[in-house]
Amino acid sequence: MPQLAGGPAAQVRGYWESLRTGGGIPWRTAIDPRGLTGALDRVFLAERIGAGLAQVRLSGTRVNELSGMDVRGLPLSCLFQPDTRTELSRVVEGVFQGPRATELHLTARKELGRPLLAARLLLLPLLDRAGNCTLLLGCIDTGGEIGRAPRRFEILRSVEERLLGAAASMPEPVAPDLKPAQGYLRLVYSAD
Q1: What averages of pLDDT result for each successive group of 10 residues across the chain (192 residues)?
Q2: Which pTM value belongs to this model?
Q3: Is the bond preceding 150 in cis, omega lying within 30 degrees of 0?
Q4: Is 147 helix (H, G, I), strand (E, B) or coil?
Q5: Which of 167, 162, 164 is nearest to 127 (CA)?
Q6: 171: number of CA atoms within 13 Å, CB side?
Q7: Which residues, other chains included, contact 74 with Cβ-Cβ below 8 Å and sequence gap of 6+?
Q8: Half-sphere exposure of 172 (CA within 13 A, CB side)
């Protein structure tokens, strides 16, 4: 199986790291697709919908090709073999609750019309508008041809990095100043 070092997953991790202020978790609103240009087809955004469950909200074309359909609105587990989904659930919950940056090394079985496929899945936590860690930025980097879709992965190993101090250093959203401006504007009525 090919080694998947560097590539799109490394670009996504580097971009995500650049958005961390004071070691905190980046805000979803800080994500700019221009920062992910070389990896956009492999990137997805998912939202926590329950304990260990994440629903895909946005997905790149390569992510959709792996499943053979548009995965928006589907659980992230649709890309995995049924017997691997319990482990995936544990990992996903760790991303949200840890919070953790996680890298999964995956494989898809060799079958008729489907060559052996290695993949690396990166899962990175994001803050929603309320400041809660309910979103994740993901990137799936595959080595080799996809073959006949859908492809379902098994987890070979996971590398989970607890983000120490992330919760304590998360930037608070700044409330806008809602005081009305005085003396700069006035209503003028003209009957002409």
Answers
A1: 67 94 91 92 96 96 94 96 96 95 95 92 96 96 88 95 64 45 55 64
A2: 0.82
A3: yes
A4: coil
A5: 167
A6: 16
A7: 55, 56, 67
A8: 4
